[in-house]
Protein backbone atom coordinates (compact mmCIF):
# COMPACT_ATOMS: atom_id res chain seq x y z
CA UNK A 1 0.00 0.00 0.00
CA UNK A 2 1.41 3.42 -0.96
CA UNK A 3 2.11 6.09 1.64
CA UNK A 4 -0.82 8.16 0.32
CA UNK A 5 -3.23 5.24 0.59
CA UNK A 6 -1.97 4.46 4.08
CA UNK A 7 -2.58 8.07 5.17
CA UNK A 8 -6.06 8.00 3.63
CA UNK A 9 -6.89 4.75 5.42
CA UNK A 10 -5.80 6.27 8.72
CA UNK A 11 -7.93 9.39 8.12
CA UNK A 12 -10.99 7.28 7.29
CA UNK A 13 -10.50 5.19 10.42
CA UNK A 14 -10.24 8.33 12.57
CA UNK A 15 -13.43 9.69 11.00
CA UNK A 16 -15.22 6.44 11.83
CA UNK A 17 -14.06 6.86 15.40
CA UNK A 18 -15.63 10.33 15.53
CA UNK A 19 -12.40 12.35 15.40
CA UNK A 20 -13.43 15.86 14.30
CA UNK A 21 -9.83 16.73 13.36
CA UNK A 22 -9.85 13.88 10.87
CA UNK A 23 -12.57 15.67 8.92
CA UNK A 24 -10.43 18.79 8.83
CA UNK A 25 -7.53 16.69 7.53
CA UNK A 26 -9.72 15.14 4.84
CA UNK A 27 -11.07 18.50 3.68
CA UNK A 28 -7.64 20.14 3.73
CA UNK A 29 -6.24 17.24 1.69
CA UNK A 30 -8.88 17.09 -1.04
CA UNK A 31 -11.02 20.25 -1.07
CA UNK A 32 -8.72 22.21 -3.38
CA UNK A 33 -8.53 19.45 -5.97
CA UNK A 34 -12.27 18.83 -5.90
CA UNK A 35 -12.98 22.56 -6.25
CA UNK A 36 -10.66 22.83 -9.25
CA UNK A 37 -12.35 19.80 -10.81
CA UNK A 38 -15.87 21.21 -10.29
CA UNK A 39 -15.08 24.80 -11.23
CA UNK A 40 -13.36 23.78 -14.47
CA UNK A 41 -16.68 22.24 -15.55
CA UNK A 42 -19.22 24.60 -13.99
CA UNK A 43 -17.36 27.89 -14.32
CA UNK A 44 -18.92 29.26 -11.14
CA UNK A 45 -17.04 29.39 -7.84
CA UNK A 46 -20.09 29.51 -5.53
CA UNK A 47 -21.80 26.62 -7.34
CA UNK A 48 -18.56 24.64 -7.27
CA UNK A 49 -18.25 25.14 -3.51
CA UNK A 50 -21.82 23.85 -3.08
CA UNK A 51 -21.02 20.80 -5.21
CA UNK A 52 -17.88 19.99 -3.24
CA UNK A 53 -19.75 20.49 0.03
CA UNK A 54 -22.41 18.04 -1.11
CA UNK A 55 -19.67 15.62 -2.18
CA UNK A 56 -18.17 15.65 1.32
CA UNK A 57 -21.63 15.18 2.84
CA UNK A 58 -22.21 12.36 0.36
CA UNK A 59 -19.00 10.69 1.49
CA UNK A 60 -20.12 11.08 5.09
CA UNK A 61 -23.43 9.42 4.29
CA UNK A 62 -21.82 6.56 2.37
CA UNK A 63 -19.02 6.01 4.88
CA UNK A 64 -20.54 2.77 6.30
CA UNK A 65 -20.35 1.30 2.78
CA UNK A 66 -16.79 2.41 2.02
CA UNK A 67 -14.51 -0.59 2.48
CA UNK A 68 -11.27 0.95 1.29
CA UNK A 69 -11.19 -1.33 -1.73
CA UNK A 70 -10.63 1.65 -4.01
CA UNK A 71 -8.41 4.71 -3.45
CA UNK A 72 -10.09 7.41 -1.38
CA UNK A 73 -9.22 10.06 -3.96
CA UNK A 74 -10.97 8.11 -6.71
CA UNK A 75 -13.98 7.54 -4.45
CA UNK A 76 -14.29 11.24 -3.58
CA UNK A 77 -13.98 12.31 -7.22
CA UNK A 78 -16.68 9.80 -8.19
CA UNK A 79 -19.05 11.31 -5.63
CA UNK A 80 -18.13 14.82 -6.76
CA UNK A 81 -18.77 13.90 -10.40
CA UNK A 82 -22.17 12.51 -9.43
CA UNK A 83 -23.08 15.72 -7.56
CA UNK A 84 -21.77 17.78 -10.48
CA UNK A 85 -23.92 15.84 -12.93
CA UNK A 86 -26.97 16.46 -10.75
CA UNK A 87 -26.19 20.18 -10.66
CA UNK A 88 -25.83 20.41 -14.44
CA UNK A 89 -29.10 18.54 -14.97
CA UNK A 90 -30.94 20.86 -12.57
CA UNK A 91 -29.65 23.79 -14.61
CA UNK A 92 -30.75 22.14 -17.84
CA UNK A 93 -27.18 21.72 -19.00
CA UNK A 94 -25.97 18.53 -20.59
CA UNK A 95 -23.29 16.88 -18.47
CA UNK A 96 -20.07 16.16 -20.30
CA UNK A 97 -17.73 14.91 -17.61
CA UNK A 98 -14.36 13.28 -17.75
CA UNK A 99 -13.73 11.85 -14.32
CA UNK A 100 -10.15 12.41 -13.32
CA UNK A 101 -8.22 13.90 -10.45
CA UNK A 102 -5.63 15.82 -12.45
CA UNK A 103 -6.54 19.19 -10.91
CA UNK A 104 -4.12 20.06 -8.18
CA UNK A 105 -4.17 22.70 -5.48
CA UNK A 106 -2.49 25.85 -6.71
CA UNK A 107 -0.97 26.74 -3.35
CA UNK A 108 -1.44 26.87 0.35
CA UNK A 109 -4.95 28.16 1.07
CA UNK A 110 -4.11 29.08 4.64
CA UNK A 111 -3.05 32.62 5.46
CA UNK A 112 -0.74 33.20 8.41
CA UNK A 113 -1.95 35.73 10.95
CA UNK A 114 1.32 37.26 12.09
CA UNK A 115 2.07 40.35 14.13
CA UNK A 116 5.43 42.11 13.61
CA UNK A 117 7.56 42.62 16.66
CA UNK A 118 6.92 41.67 20.24
CA UNK A 119 4.47 44.48 21.03
CA UNK A 120 1.07 44.96 19.42
CA UNK A 121 0.31 48.52 18.29
CA UNK A 122 -3.13 50.02 18.91
CA UNK A 123 -4.09 49.66 15.25
CA UNK A 124 -3.37 45.92 15.42
CA UNK A 125 -5.51 45.50 18.52
CA UNK A 126 -8.34 47.45 16.87
CA UNK A 127 -8.15 45.23 13.79
CA UNK A 128 -8.21 42.14 15.98
CA UNK A 129 -11.32 43.32 17.82
CA UNK A 130 -13.05 44.18 14.55
CA UNK A 131 -12.07 40.82 13.10
CA UNK A 132 -13.56 38.97 16.06
CA UNK A 133 -16.77 40.99 15.71
CA UNK A 134 -17.03 40.16 12.01
CA UNK A 135 -16.33 36.49 12.72
CA UNK A 136 -19.06 36.39 15.38
CA UNK A 137 -21.61 37.96 13.02
CA UNK A 138 -20.61 35.64 10.17
CA UNK A 139 -20.94 32.54 12.35
CA UNK A 140 -24.29 33.69 13.73
CA UNK A 141 -25.68 34.28 10.26
CA UNK A 142 -24.36 30.94 9.01
CA UNK A 143 -25.90 29.05 11.94
CA UNK A 144 -29.24 30.78 11.47
CA UNK A 145 -29.24 30.02 7.75
CA UNK A 146 -28.43 26.33 8.24
CA UNK A 147 -30.97 25.91 11.04
CA UNK A 148 -33.67 27.42 8.83
CA UNK A 149 -32.76 25.03 6.02
CA UNK A 150 -33.07 22.02 8.31
CA UNK A 151 -36.35 23.34 9.71
CA UNK A 152 -37.74 23.67 6.19
CA UNK A 153 -36.65 20.09 5.44
CA UNK A 154 -37.93 18.74 8.75
CA UNK A 155 -34.49 17.50 9.85
CA UNK A 156 -35.49 17.57 13.51
CA UNK A 157 -33.13 14.76 14.54
CA UNK A 158 -30.16 16.83 13.39
CA UNK A 159 -31.44 19.92 15.19
CA UNK A 160 -31.98 18.02 18.45
CA UNK A 161 -28.55 16.46 18.14
CA UNK A 162 -26.79 19.79 17.59
CA UNK A 163 -28.71 21.43 20.43
CA UNK A 164 -27.45 18.78 22.81
CA UNK A 165 -23.88 18.99 21.50
CA UNK A 166 -23.39 22.74 21.16
CA UNK A 167 -25.98 24.35 23.43
CA UNK A 168 -26.05 21.94 26.35
CA UNK A 169 -22.50 20.67 25.90
CA UNK A 170 -23.49 17.00 26.05
CA UNK A 171 -20.94 14.42 24.89
CA UNK A 172 -21.34 12.46 21.66
CA UNK A 173 -21.99 9.26 23.62
CA UNK A 174 -24.66 10.79 25.86
CA UNK A 175 -26.30 12.51 22.89
CA UNK A 176 -26.47 9.19 21.06
CA UNK A 177 -28.07 7.50 24.07
CA UNK A 178 -30.61 10.28 24.63
CA UNK A 179 -31.73 10.40 21.00
CA UNK A 180 -31.50 6.70 20.24
CA UNK A 181 -28.76 7.19 17.66
CA UNK A 182 -25.40 5.54 17.15
CA UNK A 183 -22.28 7.48 18.09
CA UNK A 184 -21.30 7.37 14.40
CA UNK A 185 -24.57 9.09 13.44
CA UNK A 186 -23.95 11.80 16.03
CA UNK A 187 -20.40 12.31 14.72
CA UNK A 188 -21.77 12.46 11.16
CA UNK A 189 -24.38 15.10 12.07
CA UNK A 190 -21.73 17.17 13.82
CA UNK A 191 -19.33 16.98 10.87
CA UNK A 192 -22.12 17.68 8.40
CA UNK A 193 -23.02 20.84 10.32
CA UNK A 194 -19.42 22.04 10.41
CA UNK A 195 -18.91 21.42 6.69
CA UNK A 196 -22.08 23.34 5.80
CA UNK A 197 -21.21 26.27 8.09
CA UNK A 198 -17.81 26.65 6.44
CA UNK A 199 -19.40 26.64 2.99
CA UNK A 200 -21.96 29.29 3.99
CA UNK A 201 -19.27 31.50 5.54
CA UNK A 202 -17.10 31.25 2.42
CA UNK A 203 -20.00 32.58 0.33
CA UNK A 204 -20.22 35.70 2.48
CA UNK A 205 -17.19 37.15 0.65
CA UNK A 206 -15.52 38.36 3.82
CA UNK A 207 -12.16 40.10 3.84
CA UNK A 208 -9.35 37.54 3.62
CA UNK A 209 -8.17 38.51 7.11
CA UNK A 210 -11.47 37.23 8.54
CA UNK A 211 -11.35 33.46 9.04
CA UNK A 212 -7.99 33.08 7.20
CA UNK A 213 -8.13 29.35 8.02
CA UNK A 214 -11.07 28.99 5.61
UniProtKB/TrEMBL annotation:
GO terms for molecular function: sigma factor activity. Residues 26-94 form the RNA polymerase sigma-70 region domain. Keywords: Sigma factor, Transcription, Transcription regulation. The keyword Repeat does not apply. It comes from the Bacteria. GO terms for biological process: DNA-templated transcription initiation. This is ECF RNA polymerase sigma factor SigW. It comes from Roseimaritima ulvae. The gene is sigW_2.
Amino acid sequence: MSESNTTDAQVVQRIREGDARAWEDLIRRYEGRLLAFAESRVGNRAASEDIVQEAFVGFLTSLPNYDGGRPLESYLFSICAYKLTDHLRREGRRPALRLDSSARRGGDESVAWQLPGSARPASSIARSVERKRLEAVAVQQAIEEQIERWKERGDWAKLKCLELLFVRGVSNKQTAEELGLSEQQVANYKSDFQIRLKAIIRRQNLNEEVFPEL
